[in-house]
Amino acid sequence: MNRTGSDVRIPGVMSALERLSLPHRIIAAQSPEDKELTAWTEAAFPWGFSQIDWTLVPDHRCVEYTDLEDVVAAFRAMVETLSAQSLVVVMWANGLCPLLEIQLGDLQTIATEIFEEHETSRDVFVFNRREGWLIEMHHEDTLSMGRSSVRE
Questions:
Q1: d(Cα 132, Cα 148) in Å, to the nearest integer?
Q2: pLDDT tens-digit readout, 24-76
Q3: Within the chain, what is the greatest distance between any pair of CA atoms?
Q4: What is the per-residue pLDDT across 64-114, written as a single tens digit (0 to 9) for each?
Q5: Are 140 and 132 in contact (CB under 8 A)?
Q6: Of 125, 117, 123, which is closest to residue 140 (Cα–Cα)?
Q7: What sign results for the dihedral spanned by CA atoms 97, 23, 112, 19?
Q8: What are the residues facing 138 on neighbouring strands?
Q9: Measured between alpha carbons, how far is 134 from 37 in angstroms, rounded to an integer?
Q10: In this structure, are residues 128 and 141 in contact, taking their beta carbons and an 8 Å threshold?
Q11: Domain locations along the chain
Q12: What whole-number distance in Å separates Cα of residue 85 and Cα of residue 129?
């Protein structure tokens, strides 16, 4: 089988998407669309050295996690009041990884695979530009969610 960049960069995610036949769209790494999405995160949220500076985001909350089970549970709690039909983008901090566009409800189904791609990138971003929210899983064991006034 000829493995594509997506298969190599996010193998667990791609396997779960295929196994569960979840509708999704892959956005090529470093494509114009990737650059546009990255630009939105940079415009909508204040960045510090390696992560969003959550102290400058008035509407936010952060929790610490100790393991994969914790981060998945915290993620599910953060999104429980959001629409499962919302179309979200998953972006890994590794610029060579493709991005994933998927409905939030389907993303919750594969949250374990999304957040366990540690060999690829321990920093993960899930966001919805239209609704103006972003969740950041940072490698220093924090999961944060905030809202911005900047919309698509």
A1: 5
A2: 999 999 999 999 999 999 999 999 887 899 999 999 999 999 998 999 999 99
A3: 48
A4: 999 989 999 999 999 999 999 999 999 998 888 899 999 999 999 999 999
A5: no
A6: 123
A7: negative
A8: 142
A9: 12
A10: no
A11: 5-147
A12: 14
